[in-house]
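In practice, a research group might receive sequence data for several interacting partners and want a quick structural hypothesis before committing to experiments. The following worked case mirrors that situation: the sequences arrive first, and a predicted assembly follows.
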Amino acid sequence: MQTHDYDVVIVGAGGAGMRAALEASKRARTAVVTKLYPTRSHTGAAQGGMCAALANVEEDNWEWHTYDTVKGGDYLVDQDAAEVMAKEAIDAVLDLEKMGLPFNRTPEGKIDQRRFGGHTREHGEAPVRRACYAADRTGHMILQTLYQNCVKQQVEFFNEYYVLDVLMTGDPRTDEGVRASGVVTYELATGEIHVFRAKSVVFASGGFGKVFKTTSNAHTLTGDGPAMVLRRGIPLEDMEFFQFHPTGLAGLGILLSEAARGEGAILRNSNMERFMERYAPTLKDLAPRDVVARAMANEVREGRGCGPNKDYVLLDLTHLEPAHIDAKLPDITEFARTYLGVEPYTEPVPVFPTAHYAMGGIPTNIRGEVLRNAEDVIPGMYAAGEVACVSVHGGNRLGTNSLLDINVFGRRAGIAAAEHAATVESPELPEGVEIPTVELLQRLRDRPATEDRVADIRRDLQETMDANVQVFRTEETCRKALADIEALKKRYETVAVQDKGLRYNLDLLEAVELGFLLDLAETVALGALYRKESRGGHFREDFDKRDDVNFLHHTMYYRTLEGEEGAEGTSIRLGTKPVVITRYEPKERTF
Amino acid sequence: MTAVAEKTPAPEASAAEIPSFEVTLRINRFDPDSGKDSSWEDFTVTMHGTDRVLDALHEIKWHLDGSLSFRRSCAHGVCGSDAMRINGRNRLACKTLLKDLDISKPILVEPIKGLPVEKDLIVDMDPFFESYREIMPFLVAKGQEPSRERLQSAEERERFDDTTKCILCAACTSSCPVFWTDGQYFGPAAIVNAHRFIFDSRDDAGEQRLEILNSKEGVWRCRTTFNCSEACPRGIQVTKAIAEVKQAVIRGRI
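A structural hypothesis for the assembly, expressed as tokens:
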């Protein structure tokens, strides 16, 4: 075992982690610990754009952006946070440009902007051009640009180090004086344990889309961050809110950006009808994602799906000029050709909703400080990006607001973490902090061989999540998912790994990741069961209206203490947290 | 050794069932801790319609041999984790559909060449990133910072568009015969990333980069074999980019 001492340790090297690192490393001794090489992070898969009211091509302002974010999130957004994000969006885009990001340009040489779902002028009147973009590879350019600047600034990375445990000076559920003290990590190349002592820890480890089967998420998005903090007594927030992106390649889940619809593509059913006109008369195909995804699923349910199994709808780009498609949407059209053998110039592309983004996560305030309950922070603990719940996305995130979130709150968390580190002494680390991690790995490694496989448990988990807690949910399906997860957890307790070696043992780590996925899937299903209303990405067929009287609050998930009873036989206690409402009183959403 | 996995057909399989087929992957295995040299191992798996080489590798790892090691993440050709040699060509496993290969004989899968093999299909990427870092892969803009964005015309932006697509997968660099034999050569990917900044109208460090690339490890080692362009999963015209950098070095300016 090795130990390392830093002021700030950042967990994850996607957009949020590297944006935080650029700030923290200027001010404090900083390490970035990441299970992937930084440029492999899933920020690079984001396509369409990053919204900011630059008003480069038409009138726009941050207040409209705030309003759209709040309304798009079905009023579960904390409005102070949304306002911060929309205001700072402008500098966030300009900062990236100055770092070298190659945005597409207007004829005047300014950053070009295009339409995106749910982004409007005059509070919903009509779509506005707000998304700054670099073709349909904006996330790739952000990831590359941030990495380039980390190279320039000589940020210190520990690549292919898996963070498996978080260290604190006490239990956040019971100790008021608790603060962050570091992380325990596993070096993939050697199997060696490294303990990082730190004054500040920033979680920027991304989402957990792999709880679902059909997903746009990378194989590595297994929610390690939120699952490990939950086990240590830090709460999670709003886990029932998961976004299903309307246009995944049918059967595969690979993302086709909303930018396609921003550029004029149209969704059609088996009658070639532009069905979104019925569901969202004003914004049509550019309504927020929850609305479009539900409409698509409904078309299929009512028998108007396409293909031999009538199980998808079509994204039609055939009326767009091939030159325009090549200039604005080159990557996603290549995905259609490569993976489905469909030529988007001439044929509509089969699409269906795909699990895309966790609105919930580790609760933070607008400084990126992690909360240990509805009010109090854990000094030295930060989170930013998809892993965090600020909450700027509420019940449904608007397209492009994730790339914005990572830049605005990654920056804020990086600054706050470094400033905190300057004011405190290094925390004490008692002997043996690594033992729980060593034992966890040892248990998985030492078990006698089983017929059952990690991959089979994971597949069964993903199948029950897709069948029961996806776009449409009911009490019955949520209970079914919970029962299935309980049974899968039992199987997990005995499953063995085959690879017993130390070198690049991804077999072992997939088993650890499955443990994280099971814990998080349970929170998703539990929250979906308890929220007896429909809001944003959470739709209950048995409670199909929003219920502001009973549910205009965030859900908090706490791991139970020894002897404490959890909800529905789980080891989770549920709580609530008020929604911050400043300017916009909740009203019915129409698009 | 040969191992076979059977997938049971889904119960709801109907008239529209996706056809399945058997495919054998012949994989070059290596574990330095074993004390043995690398060796080939065959695995036969049942796969379906649009499955990719990565799906077959997963099927093997998840059901036949958990110790088979390879990197992967996004699984749709944008993260650059899973570059490997497939039937002697550098490709991304997640972008190579099985149905596009000749499956009547075993598909050969090996680690990319020229970088030290760590285990099975995993190579040490540090030397690759080392070269990348040496060419100053970041914007250097002198003069006063504007309060808004720097202006750049659509034409100026287009000038370096091709080389912005690089995902640092190393498929090009590890396909280069010069890189295999010459441990010092920067390799195509580093030059591609130098190109991305040299031809960016906002950048002021082009001459420094050209000086670095004019050194003995630099562009002149390139013998224009076009392997790199063929290998690039992003369709970057790598050889053309290198030629443009060579031209700029000769002219001594951009």
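Before designing any experiment, note the following. Chain A has 16 helices and 20 strands. Residues 8 and 111 of chain A are 34 Å apart (CA to CA).
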